[in-house]
UniProtKB/TrEMBL annotation:
UniProt organism field: Oryza brachyantha (malo sina)
UniProt cross-references to Pfam families, sorted A to Z: F-box, LRR_At5g56370
InterPro entries: F-box-like_dom_sf (IPR036047), F-box_AtFBL13-like (IPR053781), F-box_dom (IPR001810), FBL15-like (IPR055312), LRR_FXL15/At3g58940/PEG3-like (IPR055411)
Name by which UniProt lists this protein: F-box domain-containing protein
Domain annotation F-box: ranges: 11-48
Length: 496
């Protein structure tokens, strides 16, 4: 207190590691560097910080100057967010950081969009014609972000804003545990499979690649990988040899072409294969019983070529014998005219304890899901829990007409199935539709040992007291707890 009264700078007398803790709480490296104006003592404190962060879109020239002035021998964390970056500038930053980084790299390049243009989710992907081919497209490559070898880094996250990426041909990422690559193009000489395999990444456990093009073939041979996630990665062939792998997530990577894959993962526990599947071209060497499985979307109604989705899903479901949690995405088309019921293509479900269903409607009509769900339940009579999520992509909902094909096939309302193992049910997104009430009533009749059912209404739905009492009165057994969640209507909140 006396020192402060005399104008003495007591903070500057603190050890550097304590001052670093102060600076780490500032929003960016720029702010930390500005503390050098306080006194000569602070001039170089920021340059020895274990972490350097640029949290807002920043000019990479300033990042380069900061890293050039950085004096500490080891950098624990580098966090950079920029916009419309130049590939050469990004390469320079990576080369400056590589020798010293011993922890995590987060480098996110945002791609600015013209506000007058609407970007379609799939427009980023380019399909090459026969004349040009992949080689012709690569020949147009002007510049790429060159990734050097980070020998000491543990985590790398790169989002390039669809710039080209060049991978190192040599060197070992000796400490790398996780690698995330997003929104990029792989250059013609890139071999991602080689880089992430055991020879170059001996400790790699987590590999995530999203929205990437230019791979064609991906062959991974790793003794350490535990999790592989590939989303919207355009390729023709996938090979995975990973004896320790427990999670494999492949989404929309073979769109528009016959899938070719060979997966060796004897310890796999979770498989998300949201893609085409043909047992003649996709070889799966793994256990027949998994902890969790999700397949490609299943069309409830439709016609060619939509029925191809169901065929692929049916093939994959037949491959497995037992799944602890089976996660299915069921889709209703926006136009139901001249559509056919396609659920009959699914003829077998693996033995399942927990069944999770997401039912999505492309339009504004909440279709009757009773026939579809009843059909699936006839093949899953041993389930212990059922979760259903109802999704409609339009807020302007209208009542489905009485002659809509979604009510077909009929008869399920009077049939009985025994769901004696079913103990818990939860339904999300209810809209007060008549068919929803009918389904809940029938479900309570099928599940003789049901302990709890939770009904969650959509936020925009108004639930009256009469409707609430009607739902609560459906329980024929005192042991069954009915819980109703809603935000509008009589009382709001939770009732049970």
């Amino acid at each position: 207190m006396d020192g402060a009264a005399n104008g003495e700078d007591l903070i500057s007398t603190l050890p550097d590691d304590v001052l670093h803790e102060f600076l780490l709480r500032l929003p960016s490296a720029d702010a930390a560097a500005q503390t050098s104006l306080l006194s000569r003592r602070w001039r170089y404190v920021w340059a020895h910080m274990p972490e350097v962060q640029f949290s807002y879109p920043v000019d990479l020239h300033r990042v380069r100057l900061a890293l050039t002035a950085y004096a500490a021998p080891v950098l624990r964390r580098l966090h950079i967010i920029t916009c419309d970056a130049n590939p050469e500038a990004m390469t320079t930053i990576l080369r400056l950081a590589a020798p010293r980084l011993s922890g995590s790299l987060f480098f996110h390049n945002e791609e600015s969009l013209d506000p007058d243009e609407e970007e379609d989710e799939e427009e980023w992907r380019v399909y090459y014609d026969d004349e040009e081919g992949m080689d012709g497209a690569i020949a147009r490559e002007i510049a790429s972000v060159k990734l050097p070898c980070f020998e000491k880094a543990k985590n790398i996250y790169l989002c390039l804003g669809f710039l080209y990426l060049g991978l190192p041909q040599s060197g070992v990422f000796a400490q790398l545990i996780s690698l995330h690559l997003h929104h990029l193009w792989f250059g013609g000489d890139c071999d991602l499979g080689k880089m992430v395999s055991s020879a170059q990444c001996p400790l790699l456990q987590f590999l995530h690649v999203y929205q990437a093009d230019g791979l064609t073939n991906l062959a991974i041979h790793s003794k350490s990988l535990l999790q592989i996630v590939l989303g919207d990665v355009a390729m023709q062939q996938l090979i995975v040899e990973a004896p320790m792998l427990t999670v494999l997530d492949v989404r929309r990577c073979f769109v528009g072409q016959q899938p070719k894959a060979n997966i060796f993962a004897p310890l796999l526990e979770i498989l998300y294969w949201i893609d085409l599947y043909n047992p003649a071209t996709v070889q799966l060497t793994m256990k027949k019983d998994l902890r969790k499985l999700r397949t490609y979307s299943i069309m409830v109604y439709g016609g060619a070529p939509l029925d191809k989705h169901n065929l692929d899903s049916a093939r994959l479901l037949k491959f497995f014998e037992a799944i602890t949690t089976l996660d299915l995405f069921l889709q209703y088309p926006s136009d139901m005219i001249d559509m056919q019921y396609l659920m009959g293509m699914i003829t077998k479900l693996p033995k399942t304890e927990n069944l999770s269903l997401e039912l999505s409607t492309e339009g504004h009509r909440p279709h009757d899901f009773g026939p579809c769900v009843f059909y699936l339940l006839t093949m899953a009579t041993g389930i212990r829990s059922l979760s259903m999520k109802l999704v409609i992509d339009n807020d302007e909902r209208t009542v489905c007409s009485w002659d809509c094909i979604c009510h077909q096939p009929q008869g399920w309302e009077t049939e009985h199935i025994s769901l004696d193992s079913l103990e818990e049910v939860e339904i999300f997104g209810l809209l007060r539709a008549k068919h929803e009430f009918v389904f809940v009533k029938r479900l309570l009749g099928w599940a003789a040992n049901l302990k709890k059912i939770t009904l969650n209404f959509a936020p925009s739905v108004v639930v009256t007291d009469e409707e609430r009492q009607k739902l609560l009165g459906l329980a024929s057994r005192p042991e069954t707890c009915i819980k109703i969640n809603f935000s509008k209507g009589y009382g709001g909140g939770v009732h049970q």
